[in-house]
Amino acid sequence: MLFFISKHSSVLLIVATFTGLLWPEASLAVFPALPYVLFFLMLFTLIGIEQKTLLKVLNKKSCWIYTLLHSVVMTVISCSLAILFNASDSLLVAIAAVSATGSLFATPAIARSIGLNALTAMAMTIATTLLMPVVLYINLLIFQHDEFSLDMTSYLIRLIVFIVCPMACSALVYHFVPRPTLTRVHNKLSQFTILLVFAFPFGLVGPLRDAFNSNPSHAINYIFISFCVCFLFFISSLLFYLRQGKDIALLAAITSSNRNVLLTFTVAGASLGPDFLILLGALQIPTYALPLFVRLINNYITTRHLSPQTDNTK
């Protein structure tokens, strides 16, 4: 059963998103449990990654170049387009906040589920999360005309709980557990991990349903905006990394598109304006549709690459 779920996880992520949209009471019930789910998701993912290797990747210049692309460059591109299309001040603040947001903590698990490098995805996720409050503060300083403040205490607590603690636990496991045993256990855990990812689209889509109930056309408008934002992040990163190969380009694209908007909301709250919470819910649809899209692209490219070339010579 776990193998079946893991194999079809890309489709099931979309199913989980629309199930949460159709069943808002259950979505709201799951929402408070998401921090606990997130801790175990990070822990189970990091158990399969040797921390010395992760730190080496995190220390590479290329990782931080990606981080600047993820946050700073995407802010410039997305906000410039929002201004060009005459977005409202509240929507502009929401887009600026999303652009500053680090990658979703579930990204390494999603990357593994579609055959991409979870180690690199984890390094990208950590780096973008570390840079997030700096870029977010600058973005709000530029686009938020009212007074604002960031809850750095909550940010630091979440950084310790969801990144530092799982990394420390993983390091201890690698030190005390024999490698063959660890490999065998992680092979089972990696199939279970994707089950935890389903909780996020299911539990975060609730605000969008509230918007649908009050103003359906307004909600549809935000779904359209969320697709545009995700598509912009995806295509920009894909084109930037395309010369470095298919795998790194797809990984950069999906990591850039997956945004930890819940963490940003926790840090900045009401400073993000009324549009951010609706956009948070709407973003769950394109975010969790992307793994299926990337899997299809990856399979198509791989199939074409491996298929025998037609011999036209006679």
Automatic annotation (TrEMBL):
Question: Which Gene3D superfamilies did the record assign?
Answer: 1.20.1530.20
| Transmembrane annotation, as ranges | 34-51, 63-85, 91-111, 118-143, 155-177, 189-208, 220-241
What are the protein's UniProt keywords? Membrane, Transmembrane, Transmembrane helix
Q: Is Mitochondrion set as a keyword in this record?
A: no
**Can you say what this protein is called?**
Bile acid:sodium symporter
Query: Whose protein is this, by species?
Result: Photobacterium lutimaris
Organism placement in taxonomy = Bacteria, Pseudomonadati, Pseudomonadota, Gammaproteobacteria, Vibrionales
